[in-house]
């Protein structure tokens, strides 16, 4: 009976679609009128290091989106026996930050520069000093100003600059707009006006005035929208990008495009003050919705962004999380295959990660660094993954796996110490989501030890950002005058279930011992960057 009702919703065009372009996977999630996921499709992809720049080809963006949607349609057909041709609302999300620059003819001026690049230190430092506000290296304005400092010819021809979510949304709708959460990772936001900070816009224009560019900064940035505002409709041209068969009907309303930080907050019901969430996958970031502004700027450690409805958020971000232990898992898999004992990927991960719970609380002194790319918060600007141990250390599989999980949280802890110890930020709940939490109990236990705070995982958290942006699309058409928090509380999470793990004193003490060693060992990591090309 439930399947028949869902099939009817789909046929009548009442289902809602969210698509998120993550760092390793593009995912499409379809939800019903109760905001429950009913079908999904995906596409795996990877960034590339080209001429020293981490990037994705835009052809792969559209290949991935079309493949994800096609797989979603297959899933709908297989589960419900109907074709997906009409949708009530649509939302686009993607990795925050980065730099996509276009000229007046909509030509891409330079390859997409992603959040992963740590090549804008000079620009970020100068802008942070100018604004008296933390401007991270990942932010779009840092990339733009660094290009200016580098005397790159393309900046003269600049007509539009945006994030990946903004780019996809623009091509689907023709609208150059961006959700406030994603926009807050392009240029500082005034949370009172819900728009770019006018004083800082003027400061930037004065800073670059001598270059005589034919543009002002406000003219090349996307328009800022908050959750619940209409951000345009799917055009006939957009249909063919999303669904090359042309079977999907145009005219679908879209919510403001958002970054993965914003959709993570929505998917974990963490948009209210004194709530927080930790997103842990290829990268890791913790976000705490603030009751008041911080006492000072903590450039390179704490970013200030916003929720999708414009509340101030403190964000600690690390570029690297699960990527390096994924490589170790691949190596262990090769060993098993070489011995004629292959096992499924899920079982391999669960088996080895569970071993971490058996390890010494301080990982036996083992010290890995998961720096596939640089980490601004620890002053490392290139990636050199390392594993270091003393001969006296307790070198076991359990300790090795525990150390891999602990080190994935080392850079993050650097930023969180500022919020908890220097700013005395109080938080009532922290929800976790992402691949780090996939193996039952393990990720939560390690994160709780690192954050010395209970960590909850909602049973829906595995749906991730694609579900989060679908919820924002649902809020657009079903919000009924409610605030975003009211909508999430009443219409989405009223009956949600969560598993919470509180840290033990032993686990906290163990992580603190590991972290003390981690900070001392950064000199070894720096030496590797300096001496290993």
Automatic annotation (TrEMBL):
<keyword id="KW-0808">Transferase</keyword>
<feature type="domain" description="Carbohydrate kinase FGGY C-terminal">
    <location>
        <begin position="277"/>
        <end position="475"/>
    </location>
</feature>
<feature type="domain" description="Carbohydrate kinase FGGY N-terminal">
    <location>
        <begin position="16"/>
        <end position="238"/>
    </location>
</feature>
<dbReference type="GO" id="GO:0005975">
    <property type="term" value="P:carbohydrate metabolic process"/>
</dbReference>
<keyword id="KW-0418">Kinase</keyword>
<protein>
    <submittedName>
        <fullName>Pentulose/hexulose kinase</fullName>
    </submittedName>
</protein>
<dbReference type="InterPro" id="IPR043129">
    <property type="entry name" value="ATPase_NBD"/>
</dbReference>
<dbReference type="Pfam" id="PF02782">
    <property type="entry name" value="FGGY_C"/>
</dbReference>
<dbReference type="GO" id="GO:0016301">
    <property type="term" value="F:kinase activity"/>
</dbReference>
<dbReference type="InterPro" id="IPR018485">
    <property type="entry name" value="FGGY_C"/>
</dbReference>
<dbReference type="InterPro" id="IPR018484">
    <property type="entry name" value="FGGY_N"/>
</dbReference>
<dbReference type="Pfam" id="PF00370">
    <property type="entry name" value="FGGY_N"/>
</dbReference>
<dbReference type="InterPro" id="IPR050406">
    <property type="entry name" value="FGGY_Carb_Kinase"/>
</dbReference>
<comment type="similarity">
    <text>Belongs to the FGGY kinase family.</text>
</comment>
